[in-house]
Amino acid sequence: LVLGPGKAVTVEAVRLAVSNRIPVYFSYADGTPYCALLPLSATGTVVARREQYKAYYDGRGLRLARAFVAGKVVNQSRLLREYARRAAARGRGELAGELRAVAGELDSIAAEVHQVEGVLEGAGRRRLMALEAQAASLYWEMFSRLIPGGWGFPGRVKRGAGDPVNMMLNLGYGLLRARVHTAVFYAGLDPYAGYLHADRSGRESLTLDLMEEFRQVAVDRVVLKLLNLRAVRREGFSEGRIRQPALSRVVEAFEEEMERSFPAPGGGKVKLKRAIHRQARMVARFLVSGEEYVPFTAW
Fold it and tell me: Is 241 exposed, middle or buried, given 0-12, 13-18 or 19+ CB atoms closer than 10 A?
């Protein structure tokens, strides 16, 4: 990942990376990727892509969209429960109770997600998006309560964020986007043909779909950890940019989280960076052979 301006990469370095199945991404200073160098020959079969396009119309697309939203909402709930336990251990019983209450509401929304029926080009997607928005409103309100005093958080702001918390979140999501895009590509799938996110020219809808399951564990948790451990300082943020050494600390913390292990379905453990690839392959298997897709849930 080449982050920000003022850097150079040789042709030999690109060739070496690609020969080892390592794509090269170029990103803006805020972490948003704008270019990727990927091998000309991809892995996976064309059958997966043919089924990926068919699934948009035959009901399988809605099943995947439900799973992506449910996984995200469950992980939102579990992150709040983790911090409820910490608050209780520190004698902050009122905050712990509020966190657990909102987590319970999120669990109820996740259950509703599983009941959504219809088609993607109609009531099905609209209902999923409404439930996702309802969960996001609850989640970000409680997320703001977990940020130490003095930082401020105006609510979730995507592009053009000027506050440090949102700048760190956006940087982390940019790093995650490159990881998920790679996993989707190597699973033999089309990153642009998604189900939850509507089609739009240039938008990697499937990449954004699969990202939903990993935002809380790969990014939100990392940002809270950096803030609560005082690993970054306010002077590391100015004029809408993250400056050194705060930039390096966010990137390093993200990479450390990628190496963290989580329980895997069927037993054992899997590193987060491998779990992303596993989920992409699971999407492909669901499309080709009908093997049930189970969203990634942490904690």
Answer: middle
Angle, helices 123-145 vs 60-89, to 10°: value is 10
Query: How far is 297 from 299, CA to CA, in rounded Å?
Result: 7
Please choose, from the candidates 209, 284, 252, the residue with its C-alpha nearest in 3D space to the C-alpha of residue 1: 252
Whether the link from the prior residue into 245 is cis, omega within 30° of 0, is yes
Phi and psi at residue 99, to the nearest 5°: -65, -45
Express each pLDDT in 67-87 by its tens digit.
Answer: 999 999 999 999 999 999 999
In angstroms, the Cα distances linking 160 to 3, 44, 156, 157, 288 are 17, 37, 11, 8, 40
Nearest Cα residue to 146 out of 236, 234, 84? 84
Per the DSSP assignment, residues forming a β-bridge with 26 are 2, 35
Is the pTM above the cut of 0.85?
yes
pLDDT (tens digit, 9 = 90+) per residue, 136-154?
999 999 999 999 988 888 9
- For residues 140, 145, 149, 152, the Cα torsion angle rounded to the nearest 10 degrees is 20
Cα-only R_g, the chain = 19
